[in-house]
Amino acid sequence: MHKLLPITTYGMDILRKKTKPLEDVDTNIIELIENMYNTMRHANGIGLAAPQVNLNLSLAIVDISVIEEYKNIKPVILVNPAIEESHGEMVFEEGCLSIPEVRAELTRPDKVFVKYNDLDMNEVKMEYDGLLSRVIQHEIDHLNGKLFVDYFSKEVKREYQKQLSDIKKGKIAPDYPLHIYSDDFHGF
Ligand code: ZN
């Protein structure tokens, strides 16, 4: 039986730390990945990084297959990932399970070349574009202590100021699983 892990929220220190690399994927990590997956699906998310479950580890999962258009895309498990190269530009609306109810359009590179370890700790190099690239960039940011609100313009930041400070105060304490998301929104 897999557990639901509480999701950390905006304002918590763990979300601002650069994560430590994993040296090995043992049975504890496999169990953690399963629990993270369960937690992400329950919160209607399409990506989740270890700091979002209060762990300082360079580990994130992405699964966009819940969206009909991407139903054949396999989940990606990123161990110690890093973006090696990026190209192009894409505008896309983003949200984050750690920052409930805040979403805004962001510009990010479209195509990324990512290096990471698979579950056997072999080095993998992959190219991603579109939504998968977008979510992977968001998760790798989490592993570097960066949040999508950091990209906001002054105007957008002002627009969400109250909401962000409410989250910091625990006024939108998300007792996950979150049911406040509409079915058509997938945070990551
Ligand atoms: Zn996020």
Q: In terms of topology, how is this protein built?
A:
Elements: H1 27-42, E1 47-49, E2 59-62, E3 76-87, E4 90-96, E5 99-108, E6 111-117, E7 123-128, H2 130-143, H3 154-168
The structure holds zinc ion (ZN).
Zinc ion is lined by residues 96-98, 138, 142, 188.
Give the amount of beta strand, in percent. 25-35%
Amino-to-carboxy terminus distance: 24 Å
Radius of gyration: 16 Å
Low-confidence stretches: 177-185
Q: Which small molecules are bound?
A: zinc ion
Gross morphology is globular
Helix content: 10-25%
The SS-based structural class is: alpha+beta
Number of helices: 3
The pLDDT mean sits at: 91
Q: What is the tally of beta strands?
A: 7
* Largest sheet geometry: 5 strands, antiparallel
Give the topology string: H per helix, E per strand: HEEEEEEEHH
Describe this structure in words.
The protein is of the alpha+beta class and 188 residues long. It contains 3 helices and 7 strands, in the order αβββββββαα. It has helices at residues 27-42, 130-143, 154-168, and strands at residues 47-49, 59-62, 76-87, 90-96, 99-108, 111-117, 123-128. A 5-stranded antiparallel β-sheet has the order 1-2-3-6-7. It has a two-stranded antiparallel sheet with strand order 4-5. A hairpin with a 2-residue loop joins strand 4 (90-96) and strand 5 (99-108). It starts with 26 loop residues before the first helix and ends in a 20-residue tail after the last helix. The protein binds zinc ion. Zinc ion (ZN) is lined by residues 96-98, 138, 142, 188.
